[in-house]
Structures are given as C-alpha cells and as structure tokens.
Design a protein that fits this description.
Number of helices: 2
Strand order of the largest sheet: 5-6-8-9-10-1-2-3-4-7
Largest sheet: 10 strands, antiparallel
Helix content: 10-25%
Length: about 200
C-alpha cells in the first residue's frame, strides 16, 4: 500500500510539474498519452506493450539548461522514469516541426512486485512524431533500446548520444547485444512537440 501511495504522490507531482514546465518559447516535448506497439496498424487492431506516458522535456537554449522528465507506467502499477536534467546521460532534441529525438538513461522504476524495473540503468532513444490534432492514431514513434548488457554501458551511452544528435543508428554489425526497436502509436491523450521559430530549425 505504501508503494502505491508513493507512486500516486509522484504522479501527482509530475502532473503539476508538467503544467509548470509547459510555458515559454523553447523547443520542447509535452504530453499525457497512452500508446501501444504496432506497425501500420489501424483503429481496432490489438496493440501490445500498452503504456501511459507523461512527458515534459525541454531542449537547452541560450542560458536555459535542458530539463524535464518522462514517466512511463502500466495499468498493473509497474513504472520507470527519466530525468532530463541529467544532461550527461539524457538528450532532448526537437529538430523540426513535429519531430523530436529524446531519451537516455532510465534512472528509477519498479515492477509490480516492488523489485527494480529492468529498464533501470539502460539507455533508450525515443523518436516522436506529432502528426496532427487529434492525436488518435496520428501521433506515433519508435523506442530504441541500445543494449541489455550492463557491461556495455559506456558504449550504449555514446551510441545513444550520437543517435540523438544526428538520428543515425549504428550499422547492424555495430549494434550492441540486446539492441532492439519497437514502433508505437498514440491512441489516448495527446503528444505535442513545440518547435520554436527562434532557433532556426
């Protein structure tokens, strides 16, 4: 019961923070949405790996540092999070209207049974596309896992940072053990990618 209460308090705090961080004319990714895995799917198809996402990720600009968070949770109570203020291990890159690459090191989380989430300590790149309003079966993306081998942490970090900067994944022969990708579609809520005209991209 204490774990559930802690999660509820954390979620409420994040919802408040999302509202606070949403202001300003900087490149950012915000949203409170539910997504599921699919490729070329249409409404009515069965979606796998359904997860709720709350994100407020702000790209660095001028004197403003990168900041924000992503919180992901399932209806069974399992969850994980990223802290975008950790600029050594995460990245926020809005590079065109409606397009962003974000992600990095998963810093915390837990399974349903209270044990640490398997995502902790691993690097994930999250490619996001804000297609239009409404988001339903329009907004989508891909999640890239760079490795499952904790001994390759430094290599995974560098591959992630390179991808976040230029969008190029390593060639198949250079990918690390456990590298994988999952396509997903937003079917509830909304994802918004704000590209400020002030930065030239």
């Amino acid at each position: 019961m204490k774990r559930l209460s802690f999660f509820t308090v954390t979620l409420s705090s994040c919802l408040f923070a999302a509202g606070v961080l949403a202001g300003g004319a900087v490149d950012k990714v915000t949203g409170d949405f539910t997504q599921g895995n699919c490729g070329d799917c249409v409404p009515g198809d069965i979606l796998g790996n359904v997860a709720n996402r709350l994100v407020s990720a702000h790209e660095a600009a001028g004197k403003h540092r990168q900041k924000g968070f992503m919180l992901s949770w399932r209806d069974d109570g399992s969850w994980w999070e990223m802290d975008f203020s950790d600029t050594e291990n995460t990245c926020v890159h809005v590079y065109a209207d409606g397009l962003a690459r974000i992600g990095g090191l998963v810093s915390d989380g837990q399974r349903v049974d209270g044990t640490p989430a398997p995502q902790i300590g691993r690097y994930f790149g999250i490619y996001l596309v804000d297609e239009a309003e409404p988001a339903y079966f329009q907004d989508h993306g891909v999640v890239y896992r760079f490795t499952t081998d904790y001994a390759l942490w430094a290599e995974a970090r560098q591959q992630f940072l390179d991808w976040c900067e230029d969008g190029d994944l390593p060639e198949p022969e250079d990918r690390l053990a456990g590298a994988a990708a999952w396509s997903n579609i937003v079917f509830q809520g909304n994802l918004q990618i704000h590209n400020s005209p002030r930065d030239g991209d």
